[in-house]
Fold this protein.
Amino acid sequence: MTSDSSPTILIVDNDEGVVRAIASRLKSLGYACVTAETGAQGISAFRSRKIDLVITDLNMPVGDGISLAKSLRNVSDVPIIFVTGFRDEYKPELLSIPNVSVLCKPFDTSALIDLVEVELALRS
């Protein structure tokens, strides 16, 4: 169960299975989760509530992860974790966005959880 003080994590990915798996695992650890299928929906979700961390795919229709991250950087320094199979293709763009981490697909859930905990601890 989450409380008002639980960190809220925004998960953005057009793959419903990935979103469901990540959200389920994070919720089991006590995190509150908000989900979106596109970068545009992610921006809307971010604006509607306090988000402590963002996990997003890079390659999505209707607003990719890079566009999402750049939009978020205009208003926040929230940590962003990219989960992607396209790290090398986006490397120059990723290097230009501050406070981001990258986890390559396929990834071990425990590696994602470790990264989430590190990023949230750095914000405390």
